[in-house]
Every structure is written in structure tokens, then in C-alpha cells.
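Predict structure. Input: J domain-containing protein, 681 residues.
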Amino acid sequence: MSESNPDLPRFAAEYAEKEIDLFDLLGVDALASKKDIHRTWRKRTLKLHPDQAKDNFDAEKWELFERARDVLSDANARAIYESSMKAKLLRKQERDAMDQERKKFADELEAAENAHRMKQQAQDQQDRETLQKERERLAEAQRMRDEERKRQAEAEQTMDDLAEAKRRIKERKEERARKKQAKESMKASGQPKGPANGVVLVPGDYVVETGTTTKQYWELVCDKLRAVQAVKNINQEDAGSEQFRKAELQVQEIRRQIAEAETKYRQEATAPRADGSIHASINLQIDDFFVRNEFDPQTRIACDSFAASVSCGRKCIPAQHQGYCSYTVFLPTRHILQFRPVQFKLDMQVCCEARKIYGALVPTTSYMGTVNAQALGGSTIRGALHVYLQDVIPGISLEALRHMPCFSPKHRRNLIEDLADIFATGFHHGKPPKPATNGSQSVFSRGMVGSSLAERLSLLQALHGPESKYVEQVQQQAEVIESKMPWCFTHGDLVPANIMVNPDTGHLTGLIDWAEGEWLPLGTSLYGLEEVLGQVSADGKTFEYYEDHLCLRARFWNRFAVLAASSPPIFQPRSFMEHVRTGRTLGILLWRGIAFDDGKIDRVVSEDRDELEIFKLRLFLEAPTPPEFNWRHRAWLSCIWVLRFVFYRPPSAKSLAVEDKVAKDKITEVDIEYGGKCVAD
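Output follows.
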């Protein structure tokens, strides 16, 4: 029952015009109520219902009864119907009272009006049908367009899948060809051969102490092969479990002895020699760099020639510790030369920005040009190596200091306080993610990580372990990170190998390898703090914090809080620490949750492929977070800020230049032997 049908007034007028008596049709009088009309309608249409009439169902008659019920039940439509019927009766009475001639004229006029009305109604009906057909045509055309678009998308997806499959097949073929070419190149260059059972090429005649006896390395390898074969034989013979367990223990013991021998040989190989000569393992590291980047190892000759031309023919020595992304050579002066492939080249704007903010802790970098490089096999030119000249940062890397007997808790305390100074310096030079309304701070350009935070957070959703809740927390703060948190210039690879320290005191002397430096949210690089508070275990599978790591954390945050208080524009105690915690979690997820496969960042870490990284990720996320400031902290920091605001004057450009010159003068002349101990990135 559609009492609110907007067509009811039109139906009422049409039935009145056609002189259809709806009251008589339903068997009610003009005073019948709505309730009486519905009751009478049910009685009259009982036999007309489709269920009763079945094959004799008259749709037009059923529709007429329904419309009669609706018109007489609706007050507005009923009023229109009654007024129209009264008007018809009045006109009929007037015509009956007319004389014959006037009645004829009235009938003709009424007939003309009726004819015009019928014509107009027919035209309206035709227009409605035309409109309905046009709508159906447009809907069909849209459906066909959608189907065509879907078909094209499926075809494009099929072509993309096919192209991707071909690309992967091509990559696998190229990878096999590169490995084969690398092996042939290594053979052609006369590299020393060694056993393929470990990551270290140990000479076969290297003497190893095994308890009370001594053996050569090749004898240990043979013992391992015999022990493994014994285990296989026991499996085939279905011997007892006790015999099998003893055989397994024998294999594990021999593997332990081999691992200890390789570790000892590595330490001896990387130790500096008194005559300044280069150990064979250094050459292996260098050749590995060239082969890994698809360069012929002979390309090293071109790099050494370039270094000789820069040093005016004086002797240049490769660094004892070669980095993953570059080939590093020490010059006779206080400088080093780095040769980098195009995918690892430095952004000079980043180097200048880092030097401007962190001063003498960042090496001065100059671009020296390129060196043409040969592809594997030496048949074709394969791009170029970009060359950079840098100052030598005094000291040794934290990675090297950790393995020295002199590394003590005092060294760690000094380093932690210096790191707090570094983070505070970056915070003081922080900028809002959006330009300030008064124009006091300029907009910075975002780097590779900063410009792809949304994509990387989406990639991190693939983590399904206990770390997934931290991903969800960071995603909930995505708007705050992008629009409200201060962004600071951040070192993109803050690991012990890139932290230079004084071996006598542990104080920080500099940060190297700024290739990945960029502007990132406050606290993003705090994953580096976790790296400093512990080290990788002896087996290389886990990470262990130092015993005093809780005290070191407290020392770091107390010093950082005091230093950060001198930046009033964006420092708000409660929101500040919330931002720091959010940035810390974001940094740990980005640097430890996404795998680094030779520069490819397209998957998250997994337990079967990245055992150490997944261990670090979970350990760092669950480590103690920065504490909240209580009311005493807030009052104390407010006093510090007021005092600094009253008495502190920012240094002039001239004074900064003088300080930089003094810092340079404090760096003593570095000879070749000392330079060889520095760690290259």
C-alpha cells in the first residue's frame, strides 16, 4: 500500500476526468472512512487476488482497485478527486440547462479539449518511454565499457606477469653467468685457493691447536668429512640412538674447532703488520667488492693509478677494513680516496648538510670525478666509479674497539654521553615537516626513506610476529609523523662500524659514511643507541646487551633531556617524549624490519633467512623506552631554558669557522701505519 505515492494526485485527476466512480467501484459512500475503505477493498478484491484467480487474473482490474483504494485513502488525492467530480457534475448540469445551440458549442469545445488532452497525454507517455529507452541504452553502453576496461586490465596484467616471469628468468640466467664469470676471473687472477666449507679462506697448512694436540687446517676439514660420512652410514645401518648421538656430537665438535680456527685466522689476518705490507685477505676483500658489483678485478689497477696521480706518485695503501659499498685507499696525507659504484655514490648536498650541522665530526668531502670500469671479463666498459676525497677521522671504529682488552664501562659511559650530544645537536637543527607560516624555516627536501614512509609502512604489514603490534601503533601515528613531529638530519646507517672513537677514552671522534643521510622524523636513528648498548654474540646469531645497559640508558636520556631543553620553539615535555618514542619505534622497524639484499629493499625480514635481524628487531622493540618527564623534570628543564634564553647567544659564522679550524689543527699528522687502522665505510 503506497499511501505516500506522489502519483496519487495525478491518478485522482485522471479518474475524475474519465468519470470513473471510485466510491461505486469499492461499494462505499462519500462519507466512508479510511478504515472502511480498506475493509471493503479486501472484500471486493478477494476473488481478484492472483492466488485466487490464477490463470484468470486480470492485472488491469487489480491495479484499478488498488489505485482506487490508495486515492480514497490519501486525504490530498481524495480531495482532488472529489473536487474534480463535483466540477464535472456542475458542468454537466450547466450543459443540461443550456439551449440546444449553446449545448452544441459546449460539447464541441469539450470534445476539442478532450482531444488535445489525450494527445498531450499520449505525447507525455511517448516521452517517458523514450527517456526510459535512453537510460537503458546508456546503462548498456556503460556496462560494455566496464567489461572492455576489465578485459584490457586483465590483458595488461597477463602481459605484466609474463614480462615479470621473463625478467626473473633473465635475472637468474645473468646471475648464473656472473657467478661463472667471477669464478673464471678469480682463477685467471691467480687467487689463492682454499676450502669451501666456510666464509674465511684459511690456508690448508695453517696450524690449529686442538686441546693437547695440533693439526693443520686441511686435517680438520678431512676429519669433518669423515665424521659426516659416519653419520650417514649409521643412518643407513639403522644403528642404535646412542651411537647416532655420539656421531652427531663428533660432527659438532669438529665444526666448532673449524669455526674457532677461522675466527683466529681472521683476527691474525686483519692485524696490522710492522712493515706496513698488505695481507692477502685484504686483497680478497677488495676483489670481492669489484666482483660483487660486476667489475673486473683488474679495474683496481685503474683506481690505484688514479690514487697515485692524486698523491703525486707517492705510495697509497688500501684500508685494512674495506666497506661494503666502496673501495677505500689511504693517501700519504690526512685524506682517503673512496671509489663508489653509481648505486652507492654520495650526495654532495647531504655531505655538506651533515658538515654544516655536526661540524668536525663529519669528514670534509670533495668530488674528484670518475674512473672508467671494465665489466667482468674485461670485454666491455661497465659505467664508472665515482671518486671522493675525504678527511681522515682520527681514532678507530667502535666495532674494532669492542674486541680490544681496554674496552671498559668507562669507555661506554663517555661514548653514550657523546651520542646524546649528537642527538641533541640534530634536534636543535630540526625543522617542522611543513613550512612555517612566518617563513622563518625553509622546507627541506626528503630523501629516499623520508619520501616513501607510507610505502615502507605498508610493506611492514607483512610482519606477523609479536612485532606486528608495533607496526600498527606507528601506522596510527602516521599523520602525526608526517605533519607534527620535528624532522632532524639523520645518519642513515648508525652502526658501530661507522662510529669513530678515541681508543684511550671512548669519546666520539666522528661519524663516517653519510651516503644514506637524510631528513627523518625525530628519534628515527635511535636504533643506533641499541647497537651501542650491546654487541652480537660469538656465534653470530643473537645480540646481547651489556650488563650496565640500563645505567647507560639513564645516562643518555638525562643528558639528552637537559640539552634538548634549550630548543623552546618545538620542545614540549609531554608531546616531545611521545614523539621520541614514536620515532624510535619507526626507526627500528625501518632499519631492522626491512631486509637489505644488496641494496634491494623489497621484503621484510624472516626467521628462516634473517635470524640475527629478526632477533634484533624483537629485542630492540621490547627494550626500555624513553621515560616520561615528571613535574620535577619539567620545572628543572624550564629553569634551564630560561637561563639559556637570557644568557645564551648563538655563535657567529666567524666563530664557527675559527672553531672548525681549531678542531682541524688538533688532528695530528696521520702516517700510513695509523691510517691503515682507520675504518672505511
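The chain is about 55% helix and 10% strand.
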